[in-house]
Amino acid sequence: MRTVNLLLLPALLLLLALPASRGRYNDDFDDGEDLADFDDNDFAEFEDMNEDPAAEAETAPPPRVSPSSQVEDDEDEDEATVELEDGLDGFEDSETQDQDIFSKYDQEEFEGIGDMEKTGHSLKDPLIIHTVPAHLQNSWESYYMEILMVTGLLAYIMNYIIGKNKNSRLAQAWFNSHRELLESNFALVGDDGTSKEAVSTGKLNQENEHIYNLWCSGRVCCEGMLIQLKFLKRQDLLNVLARMMRPACDQVQIKVTLNDEDMDTFVFSVGTKKAMARLQKEMQDLSEFCSDKPKSGAKYGLPDSLAILTEMGEVTDGVMDSKMVHFITSHADKIESIHFSDQFSGPKVMQEEGQPLKLPETKKTLLFTFNVPGMGNTSPRDMDSLFPLMNMVIYSIDKVKKLRLNREGKQKADRNRARVEENFLKQTHAQRQEAAQTRREEKKRAEKERIMNEEDPDRQRRLEEAAQRREQKKIEKKQMKMKQIKVKAM
Asked: What is the Cα 470 distance to its own chain's centre?
């Protein structure tokens, strides 16, 4: 019986709750009920929502609904009616509520919502592809600067390799044609100077890509001979382009240093007029001992393109014998200059502070400068054509050794050298006086510093007295010299 009571108690509570819930969710209120009793009703907002769609239905345009969406809406409405018949008359389906909310929007507050459906249809329109501007396209025209730079770099590298190889072939061709002659006249050919003992390497020494050197020694009356092959800078593309506007040619320079006793005192030079004018301005010995203008060599049968600079006429007569004239006239187009000098010191020394205080050291030297045929378009055969000129160099060494001036020529040469030395001493006299004065002042300053650094006062005083006595003696000596000069003058 007790268990039956426990089961009946929940059933009674359920019966009591049903009428209350049905009255609470009733959609319509009695006319006599006061609205004040329902101010706290939680579902008052649903009543406003039921009234708003009817008021705004007249102003808002009906939304466009596709047939498929209409079928779904009908099915949703059927489901909603079924739920209302089960006892929930005051509720609607959630999807219908969302549709009511979107259908009652305010057109003034929300703009562009009506056009959302139009945009949906516009997505179905075909895409319009615009052409990309030319400056944004990835074409070869966008990289013309890079292409030019890479092309220029490749051209420079290729020219460097080709030019370097050509200079090397020309140098080797010259050495192969002259090697036998050099080895027959010199005991050592091709010393590179790397070893302590002189060793004949038998090959050229490459200084850089366009200059090759060859040192030869071990011959009578000469200390040594330096041959320098100066080719054009074919490895430099800029130099190649410059030579198109101003052509140039390769050169072979030979410098022979003679012993002091194997050459007499004279200065002589022969070459093209342009080269002679340039050397007279640049070379120290030619500017001092050959002050006259270059003279024509027509007297000795030389071409008009060549000129002569000489210290005295006797030297020209001694050097320009028949064999020497034959060498020069036969190869006049290849000879740039020939320079013999016992006072060779190189180009003039250009100093900003003044001239040197000592005469430059001189060497008895023979200089030869030959132009390689071809004006830049040189071939290995052109290097072979210089072989007779090397014979002229060997002949000139023996010729200068045998050449001796007569008594008058020797005296004139000595007077010229004394004059040059005297002019140099006059020009440097003021500078030497300034240098001597500077040395004296430095000596006095050092002596004063030594006295000031002395810690013992007595020793410091004695050093000062000794310095004063030395100064007094110097003054007395100068006075005595002045008196002696006055006596001699009387």
From this structure: 62
SS3 label, residue 255 = strand
Strand partners, 268: 310, 340
Q: What is the C-alpha to C-alpha distance for residues 186 and 24, in angstroms, rounded to an integer? A: 137
How far apart, in Å, do the first and last CA atoms of the chain sit? Answer: 180
> Is pLDDT at 86 greater than 60 in this prediction?
no
Q: For residues 108 and 116, give the distance between their C-alpha atoms in angstroms, rounded to a whole number.
A: 16
Q: Quick one: pLDDT at residue 177? A: 92
Q: What is the DSSP letter of 376?
A: T
Q: By percentage, how much of the chain surpasses pLDDT 90?
A: 23
Instruction: Please name which of 365, 374, 354 lies closest in space to residue 431, comparing C-alpha atoms.
Output: 354
> Which two structure tokens, joined as six digits, stand for 465?
């007295």
CA distance 448 to 460: 10
pLDDT higher than threshold 90 for residue 162:
yes
Residue pair 307/271 in contact (Cβ under 8 Å)? The answer is yes
pTM of the model: 0.62
| pLDDT-based confidence at residue 255 (cuts at 50, 70, 90) | very high
Type of residue numbered 128? I
pLDDT at 280 over 60: yes
Mean pLDDT of the chain: 76
CA distance 425 to 358: 9
**pLDDT tens-digit profile of 427-483?**
776 777 777 778 878 888 888 787 777 777 777 778 788 878 888 887 777 777 776
> Which helix H or strand E contains 239, and what residues bound it?
helix 237-245
H-only helix segments in 310-456: 313-319, 322-330, 380-384, 387-402, 407-452
d(CA 345, CA 285): 7
Q: For residue 320, which of 337, 334, 295, 299 has the smallest C-alpha distance?
A: 299
Contact status, residue 258 vs residue 400, Cβ threshold 8 Å? yes
Determine how β-strand 306-310 pairs with β-strand 267-272. Answer: antiparallel
Confidence of residue 83 (pLDDT cuts 50, 70, 90): very low
Tokens of 99: 């549709």
Determine the residue type at 451: I
What residue type is 205 in one-letter code? N
CA dist., res. 204 & res. 189, Å (int)? 9
